[in-house]
Amino acid sequence: GENVEQHPSTLSVQEGDSAVIKCTYSDSASNYFPWYKQELGKGPQLIIDIRSNVGEKKDQRIAVTLNKTAKHFSLHITETQPEDSAVYFCACKKGGYQKVTFGIGTKLQVIP
Amino acid sequence: TAGITQAPTSQILAAGRSMTLRCTQDMRHNAMYWYRQDLGLGLRLIHYSNTAGTTGKGEVPDGYSVSRANTDDFPLTLASAVPSQTSVYFCASSEGTSGRTDTQYFGPGTRLTVL
Description:
The complex is a heterodimer.
Chain A: E1 4-7, E2 10-14, E3 19-25, E4 30-38, E5 45-51, E6 56-59, E7 62-67, E8 72-77, E9 86-94, E10 101-102, E11 106-111
Parallel strand pairs in A: 2-11
Antiparallel strand pairs in A: 1-3, 3-8, 4-5, 4-9, 6-7, 7-8, 9-10, 9-11
Chain B: E1 4-7, E2 10-13, E3 19-25, E4 31-38, E5 42-49, E6 56-57, E7 64-66, E8 76-78, E9 87-94, E10 105-106, E11 110-114
Parallel strand pairs in B: 2-11
Antiparallel strand pairs in B: 1-3, 3-8, 4-5, 4-9, 5-6, 7-8, 9-10, 9-11
């Protein structure tokens, strides 16, 4: 089955700096790569996603890049703010299947 | 719109007892899922349902059962709880039709402690 590795497990950055979280996957048939943000005591929420037919997608301060050849994708958060502090999960899924495989999560702390 | 609701919010359960975690969605999504979240292990799929009347096993199905009698409800049952089932349980749903609408929406979770 699919295997997703996520790094780092924890990340501390100063407010205003950038944060980068990286994931690798094993199944070359995967074609959908969402990122979720989970705040304390809440369920995960989708923040951005990318499909295999594009290499980069941006939404304000958040961007995701995908390298299908190398089978890795990354989340980039610029101009970090204290409210960005949360646990972030990467995930991937294959076309035609509903099941999503998640990474183990990255705890991001933005220091004011 | 409420989205996905889960009940109870938290529960302490004696080992050997049974319990049903409830999940209801009002988005008319076809697919629903149950995950457990444990420190250092991320989110692991327990069971899923692609549409009402069908269910499937996920990554960690042992000790759990599900049913999908209608579109909105997807209860998760622990027949005889064990301490290793202590976890936070999340229900999720997605449109699950053509595969193009893949976003999963999560409920707020149920924190279960088995003693």
